[in-house]
Amino acid sequence: RYAWGLNELKPISKQGHSSNLFGNIQGATIVDALDTLYIMEMKEEFKEAKEWVEKNLDFNVNTEISVFEVNIRFVGGLLSAYYLSGEEVFRKKAVELGEKLLPAFNTPTGIPWALLNIKSGIGRNWPWASGGSSILAEFGTLHLEFVHLSHLSGNPVFAEKVMNIRKVLNRLDKPEGLYPNYLNPSSGQWGQHHVSIGGLGDSFYEYLLKAWLMSDKTDEEGKKMYYDAVQAIETHLIRKSSGGLTYIAEWKGGLLEHKMGHLTCFAGGMFALGADGAPNDKTGHHIELGAEIARTCHESYDRTSMKLGPEAFRFDGGVEAIATRQNEKYYILRPEVIETYMYMWRLTHDPKYRQWGWEAVEALEKHCRVDGGYSGIRDVYNNHESHDDVQQSFFLSETLKYLYLLFSEDDLLPFEHWVFNTEAHPLPVLRKDDGHKEENQK
């Protein structure tokens, strides 16, 4: 009603919201929510959205975009919509957009730029990122989508670009076995030695594991990189608070910052999802780690007035799982905690995960729901809502989808057949035996 065909909704002022992440490409929320509509069997809305994509989704625009955000939301959303519905328009649009992103890889190392003008093909990095570096979570979160683009287009270039990123990473020394968040695409050397499993790092680790799972467990390189990284994370970043809460700290040039971001809370689900393939009988240990992270993240929600978690919370100066800085007290409808509940529920069927998920539903309804949609909150410790008036596209693609899956049967998008990209877009596992089926069907 208020922002159809624009990128995001401002649910209080009832108008469109445009983030510079998408340049002037339009339709982020529509594309991001396609698969959610389909999974929830909202057939009429899905048909409307599909018609909008056919007529109006246009990539021939002179605009600078975030390669990472456009990949996970637009490419991922289109790929899922294609795999779920079989509608050819989604495949064509996904491949067309993938081709527009290829110039981002035109760097001396092949590590892509963060920002790309999709008309001129000129790329650059975020001016604030360590000495012109690319960001680990950004260039490390292209793998799943680009492998599928090669699979669906028959053009190997997409998969080659992302496999080359691994080659560069494997040649480099990792400080303490950890991957710094910054890598210079020209020199191929690390920037500042900051390590995070939250923002700037998070989905790189997720995609190592999921690349292995999506390959039908044939991508041994991805598997080894993942389990080696988890080993280093356990040794250097995972700590227990005096109150017994397990958390994942951030590492800054050898010093730990005892802070955990809401984004880091996805890791509970990741550890549990990877438990099955863990080396030397560590399966139970990885599940336990997932459960402990889930509990810590639930505490970060439970210790606020609104029962919604802050952007970041700390374990120092006598506080545990509480945000101490004003600029960390906001909640922007993020999915990561609910994502972990969904994985923990599917992998353990412990009823507390559904109970915790329902607490989040009640809090969202009570504090975030407004007349025109759902809004983020500026301070979750306050008793009075101060809304930010933005409904992020990931609220529909991730937060609500993970909640729906948490309360659905396990045979809806079963894990043996589907892997979720970091924007919760399901992509099918590529079976060892069906590599050429798609090409033959064309």
From TrEMBL:
Entry GO MF terms? calcium ion binding; mannosyl-oligosaccharide 1,2-alpha-mannosidase activity
Instruction: Identify one Gene Ontology CC term for this UniProt entry.
Output: Golgi membrane
Binding-site residues, Ca(2+): 422
Q: A biological process (GO) annotation for this entry?
A: carbohydrate metabolic process
Query: According to its UniProt record, in which pathway does this protein act?
Result: Protein modification; protein glycosylation
Q: Where in the cell is it found?
A: Endomembrane system
Describe the reaction catalysed, as an equation. N(4)-(alpha-D-Man-(1->2)-alpha-D-Man-(1->2)-alpha-D-Man-(1->3)-[alpha-D-Man-(1->2)-alpha-D-Man-(1->3)-[alpha-D-Man-(1->2)-alpha-D-Man-(1->6)]-alpha-D-Man-(1->6)]-beta-D-Man-(1->4)-beta-D-GlcNAc-(1->4)-beta-D-GlcNAc)-L-asparaginyl-[protein] (N-glucan mannose isomer 9A1,2,3B1,2,3) + 4 H2O = N(4)-(alpha-D-Man-(1->3)-[alpha-D-Man-(1->3)-[alpha-D-Man-(1->6)]-alpha-D-Man-(1->6)]-beta-D-Man-(1->4)-beta-D-GlcNAc-(1->4)-beta-D-GlcNAc)-L-asparaginyl-[protein] (N-glucan mannose isomer 5A1,2) + 4 beta-D-mannose; N(4)-(alpha-D-Man-(1->2)-alpha-D-Man-(1->2)-alpha-D-Man-(1->3)-[alpha-D-Man-(1->3)-[alpha-D-Man-(1->2)-alpha-D-Man-(1->6)]-alpha-D-Man-(1->6)]-beta-D-Man-(1->4)-beta-D-GlcNAc-(1->4)-beta-D-GlcNAc)-L-asparaginyl-[protein] (N-glucan mannose isomer 8A1,2,3B1,3) + 3 H2O = N(4)-(alpha-D-Man-(1->3)-[alpha-D-Man-(1->3)-[alpha-D-Man-(1->6)]-alpha-D-Man-(1->6)]-beta-D-Man-(1->4)-beta-D-GlcNAc-(1->4)-beta-D-GlcNAc)-L-asparaginyl-[protein] (N-glucan mannose isomer 5A1,2) + 3 beta-D-mannose
Q: What is its EC number?
A: 3.2.1.-
Cofactor entry:
Ca(2+)
Which function does this protein serve?
Involved in the maturation of Asn-linked oligosaccharides. Progressively trim alpha-1,2-linked mannose residues from Man(9)GlcNAc(2) to produce Man(5)GlcNAc(2).
Q: What is this protein called?
A: alpha-1,2-Mannosidase
Annotated source species:
Leptosomus discolor (Madagascar cuckoo roller)
